[in-house]
Design goal:
The chain is mainly beta. The protein has one domain (2-89). It is built from 1 helix and 8 strands. It has one helix at residues 2-5; strands spanning 9-17, 23-36, 40-44, 51-55, 61-62, 69-70, 77-78, 83-89. Strands 4-3-2-1-8-5 form a 6-stranded mixed β-sheet, with no helix packed on it. Strands 6-7 form a two-stranded antiparallel ribbon. A hairpin with a 6-residue loop joins strand 6 and strand 7.
């Protein structure tokens, strides 16, 4: 199963909500999947070359290879994406500091 994901490109969207439940920030990033652990997937961000990890539950949304994505956060156009994932991040209980 690991071979299905390694070195394939992933597009990840993160939506950060504030205490009121409204969108505070949206971030999109992409890059090749480099490693996998039991519940974690690691990919190399194309913009910073840093490793970034996301939760992994055994499957990812497959993307049609001929699709081209325009990242809302940067305006960058991205192609050759094999998988996509999106996450909503809620503030900690009691608000943020």
């Amino acid at each position: 199963m690991v071979d299905k994901y390694l070195n394939k490109n992933i597009l990840v969207g993160l939506t950060y909500l504030n205490e009121n439940g409204t969108v505070q920030e949206q971030v999109q990033m992409h890059g090749p999947i480099k490693a996998m652990a039991e519940n974690t997937l690691y990919f190399e961000r194309s913009d910073t070359k840093d490793m970034f990890s996301i939760p992994f539950e055994g499957t990812l949304e497959e993307s049609e290879n001929d699709l081209v994505y325009e990242l809302k956060s940067t305006g960058e156009t991205v192609a050759n994406i094999s998988f996509t994932a999106s996450f909503t991040i809620y503030p900690p209980e009691g608000g943020t500091e």
